[in-house]
Amino acid sequence: MISRLLKIVLKIIIGFLILSIATTILYRFVPVPVTPLMLIRCVEQKQDGKNMKLSKDWKPLEEISSHLQLAVVCTEDQNFLLHYGFDFKALKKAMLNNEKSKKIRGGSTISQQTAKNVFLWNGRNYVRKGFEAYFTLLIETVWSKERIMEVYLNVIEFGDGIYGAEAASQHYFKKSAAKLSREEAAILACLLPNPRVYGKNIGGGYMQSRKQWTLQQMRFWGGKLDFDKEE
After folding, report:
1. Stated pTM of the model
2. What is the spatial distance between Cα 150 and Cα 31, in angstroms, rounded to a whole number?
């Protein structure tokens, strides 16, 4: 009985590994059609009596403003080009902040956020975090940094039912993601910590203050994200 159970568990593990690796390899070359978060949000909208909204339009990285690529690095993960999926200094800093403040601060890298958005569900339990770590290592191994950025900017949530840079650019600024200005890119990047709330008032004082901070960080970077300097 125990031997049979172990064989079943082993088959499940092997099946999961094969499926996850195959899917990750596939997504290295083809657009991600839909994510668990997108489906979850649709269900939530339906439960709230709202019309289901899922606005997204996949664009290759070269058709997404370089300003936005730099802006999300400045706001979400300034060591993106240097780490292998995890920024332990940022994580430690976030943990210390959360011990002292009621305002929860995340320490997830862009790679971790991409892994979570593409493959997993929301949550803070250890099981989900374990899967997140696994998929983060997987995409860092199989994908380039450019591909991680491309997928991230195409699946990340920018508002209620709004996913990806192109849909966000059209919704907030009535233009393509390729034509975003520095200021517009900074605004979109500032939405990411809480897009469904911040997206309701992008002209408010808090968002304008965060925009100025982001623009300053972008200037420190020299105004450009250079993937060729990846270490």
Report:
1. 0.90
2. 9
